[in-house]
Structure formats: structure tokens, C-alpha cells
Amino acid sequence: MVASAPAPLAVPVMSPVQPVAGDWSVLPSWLPVPGMGVLAANSFLLRGRQPMLVDTGLLAVSDAYIAALTEAIDPADLRWIWISHLDADHVGNLDRVTALAPNATVLTSFLGAGKMQVAGMDASRVQTIEPGTRIDLGDRELVPLRPPYYDAPETLGFFDLHDRVLFAADAFGAVLPDAAERYADIPRHALAEGLRNWSSLDAPWLSQIDPRRFAASLAAVGCLTPLATLTGHLPPVTGDLGPLLEDVHDAWCRPAAADPALMPFSLESALAAVAAGSSRARGDARLHDIAAPGPSVQATATPASLAR
Ligand SMILES: [Fe+2]
Ligand SMILES: [Fe+2]
Predict the structure, then answer these.
(1) Domain Metallo-beta-lactamase spans what residues (predicted)?
(2) Is residue 137 a contact partner of residue 49, using CB atoms and an 8 Å limit?
């Protein structure tokens, strides 16, 4: 009898809470990504001396999320709720959680607090995280940090000095063919491709930065030597982070990463489309010449040259 392939995920689902490392657990859920596969949407629970929830999951699985959380811990025991950034997949159940957790203070960045206010969310229990500080949780300190890439400028991750756990927010996420319970279960080629695809969508600016500086950021992450890496969009990475860092490096620090053809919404691509349209409309080949594919695009297409 031939085993049938699992049916594609049609709606977001919540998965059971899993231990990760030290005092950390993951509350995993999965989102279908039409035409591409599935994406993990994780939040995390620290059951230390001062318990902390990191992000608050998807609204689409709200009842299942709250059930999983309350099974894992009495929310009244939560002392902190860390909000990495204000994207919907990270604050989906914030209102419900804060209502159940009257003793919790919300930790987020200055910009994150501002976005909460703009969105009409309750910011009265927010304590903003200041650059260069450490967060004292009684039995451990967290060092706030900006992950090597992200999709919202308020994003803050951290390094837990006690358990040597890195929380990287949206960095290192990957869209996968199927949901995976463990990082080790993901085929390497699927991980590399999914990581490249997702980072292209979620942090398209990576194609515009200096690859040497980005490589230095990745190297700095490697020097942290985390025992586990928590990311919003991949099962927790336990053990050596090196292969994953290599995948990110291969995706964005190689010469091919700068190819405008790989970025269909890039300004270079838009210029080529404008040039083609202008040429057809006016019989003017000048813009088309300027926007010809290749290195000359960046060298010659300036506002001044277009205005001549
Ligand atoms: Fe995000
Ligand atoms: Fe996210």
C-alpha cells in the first residue's frame, strides 16, 4: 500500500506546546502560504523565576492558542510579555493575553509602543526597552538586540544569558513544503530554498545592502553560539546554527543576490518597465537604453539623467 501525501494545509492550525531548551517552550502554529507551502508562526514561553511570554500568536487560532497557553501556565503567573514587533502574526492575541495576565508588563521598543498607541491598543502596561540595557528577570538577564534582518523597524530580539537562547523574531524564517515538528526534520535543500523565498518576501531590502556588512552581522550571530535559536517562522533551531547561517549567507552575500532580475518589484525592474512603456508610447529609445539590463542600470539611471 502506498502512503498518500499529506493534504495541503487550508487554514491556520495550532500545534501542541513543545519544550525547546532550558526553561523555554514553543507555542507553534502554522499558516498556509498559497502556492508556496506553509509558514510557522511561533510564540515562546519562558517558565523561569519571572515567567515571560514572547509574542502572542495568531488571531486566526485564538481559542486554541489561549487553551494551549493556559494549559502550559496560569497566565496570572506571567510577569512579562515581550512583543518583538507589531505585525499581526506576533500580536494576534495580545488583548486576550493581557486580560488574563493582570500581573504582566508588556516589553517592547519605543517605536513598538508608539505603534500600539496608533493602533488603539492598550499601552498602559508597556515598559519600553532602552538600547544598551539588560532586562533582569531575577534568575537571568536578557540582552536586547536587533536581529540581522527583519520586516518592521521596531523589531527587537534578545539573547538569554542564562540558557544561551537567541530569539531572532522574524529572522531565519522559511516557507516550507509541509509543517515540521522539529528543525532537524526539514530537508536541507527545502530549508535553503524556503529561507531564500521567505526572506525575499519579508525583507526585500536585503538585496540593497552591502553584502560584506550583512555577512559581518551573520558572523556576529554565529559568535553568540546559542544553544537554541527561537524564530517566529521556523521550528526552534537547537544545536549548531552554522548551517542555517550559511544558507542565509549563500542567499544574500553572493554576487547573484544583487541581480535585479531576482527582485521583480525592484526599482531597476520598475525602471525597465517604465522605459519599455515610454519607448512604445513615444518611439523614444533613450529610457530603454538607460534601463538596459546589467551593471549600467545602476551606473547611469539617475534622476538627473532621466530629466535631461
Ligand atoms: Fe514581521
Ligand atoms: Fe512574523
Answers:
(1) 40-218
(2) yes
